[in-house]
Amino acid sequence: MNLKRSIQVEDGQLMLGGVSAADLAKEYGTPLYVMDEQMVRDSMAAFRDSMNRFYEGKGLVCYASKAFCCKEIYRIAMDEGIGTDVVSLGELYTAKSVGFPMDKICFHGNNKTHRELEAALEWGVGRIVVDNLTELAELSALAESKNQTAQILLRIKPGIDAHTHNFIRTGQIDSKFGLALETGEAMEAVKEALAAKNVRLRGIHCHIGSQIFAVDPFVHAAEVMVGFMGQVKAETGVELEDLNLGGGFGILYTDADEPVPFGDYMGPVSEAVKKTAAKCGLAQPFVLIEPGRAIVGEAGTTLYTVGSVKNIPGIRTYVSVDGGMGDNPRYILYQSRYDMILANRADEPASQMVTVAGRCCESGDLIGENVPLAAAQPGDLLAVFATGAYNYSMASRYNRVPVPPVVMVKDGKSRVVVRGESLEDLIRNDC
Ligand code: LLP
Q: Quick one: which of 246, 285, 276, 295 has its CA closest to 129?
């Protein structure tokens, strides 16, 4: 196979973290999520080190755990010395369950529940990212009733078009997330937050979208956000400390993607932050970033067993696998494309274009259309690459197909980090 991504093949067998995909399938069954632990650690470390370099230690990487959330990923993030971003009580609870340092957590959400705000306060979350004025009032009252101080950032919509899929674009003005700059809503919120009881406004946050390859939108967002911090100082006399620029760094799904090495983002963005701060008479802010996909995406591979192969002459060939939209809803949601190969015949060239279909009772349940693949036979092992982000975390049990296990591989060894669901698990909550 001739792919842009580098893969390891030994005697025709795909190797993942030094373990053959066939052995993994034999030991754990399919479908199976496989995560290369070293790749995860390397990308966390690379983000951490480049933040330290470009911001002279005045910054923090907060892994966006919505991309892939389980106890082990928080343990690894802790071990690599980075923070995390959570967006629900479920994620926060999972992080807490392994002792994640609360001061390194950013808590997001455009409609946090009362219970979520309560937990954030009780557990001492370092940065609650307040989305709107309703939440600000609720949080302030809650903090007052508990005699605590809520540490907050305000979520701002900087109005940047990051040229990506509509569903995953969140920085433009027509977005359910955050406070608009243009309308004066953001400045009003800053003033309310500064006046609010039991609230400490640490800074501001933005997230302009996801799977972005261009550097410019990030630079532009940084300029707009620091410019706003300047305006805040001019209008209120208060200099905000934190600038959280969100995530969104694009990764390699297929050969069509051209990811930018993130040093290439970090350089120009940090320059924009520093220059704009100097221009506005501000000290260099403490900068946070929230990569999710870029940390776990390429580290994940999903293994499936091929079942039926159905050739409809003149139309297409369906290769059906034992998973599908349940474990990977990204095709049905976004028509996302993936590289895939037959893991048990990994050096065979692709000889046909196929449609890879899932097993759910839904015509749109596909993993890919017009996918180049070697001639697949029932029993072959299909490996789909770059499934580490937004696959396990967005999995469903449609048709009561259980969620597969997650296995981590490293140095020729494998271990389960999330057990696969059993039939018993599927009926556990049924009354
Ligand atoms: N920070 C905030 C506030 C976010 O909303 C997100 C993603 C991130 C960080 C991380 O973005 P990343 O670095 O992973 O691009 N389900 C979609 C992606 C939705 C992203 C939502 N927010 C997908 O499968 O592509």
A: 246
Query: DSSP readout, 88-114?
Result: SHHHHHHHHHTT--GGGEEE--SS--H
Tell whether 332 and 247 lie within a shared domain. no
**What ranges make up the beta strands (E) of 170-322?**
179-180, 199-205, 242-244, 286-289, 300-312, 316-321
- Whether 164 shows a pLDDT value over 80: the answer reads no
Annotated active-site residue in 62, 69, 280, 361: 361
pTM over 0.70: yes
User: Which of the listed residues 237, 260, 291 is the one where a domain comes to its end?
Assistant: 291
Instruction: Specify the 3-state DSSP secondary structure of 376.
Output: coil
How many other C-beta atoms can be found within 10 angstroms of the C-beta atom of residue 418? 20
Asked whether the beta carbons of 149 and 198 are under 8 A apart, the reply is yes
Asked if 247 and 204 count as a contact pair (C-beta separation under 8 A), the reply is no
Query: Does the Cβ of 205 fall within 6 Å of ligand 1?
Result: no
Same domain, 323 and 264: no
Cβ atoms < 10 Å from Cβ of 140: 21
Closest CA to 246 of 312, 293, 308, 284: 293
Query: Are 233 and 380 in the same domain?
Result: no
Q: Number of folded domains in the chain? A: 2
Q: How far is CA 2 from CA 6, 342, 349, 351, in A?
A: 9, 13, 7, 12
End-to-end CA distance of the chain: 50
Q: Is residue 69 annotated as part of the catalytic site, yes or no?
A: no
**pLDDT tens-digit readout, 319-361:** 999 999 999 999 999 999 999 999 999 999 999 999 999 999 9
Q: Which two tokens stand for residue 197?
A: 């009881």
Tokens of 205: 């946050």
298 C-beta closer than 6 A to ligand 1: no
Amino acid 160: pLDDT: 85
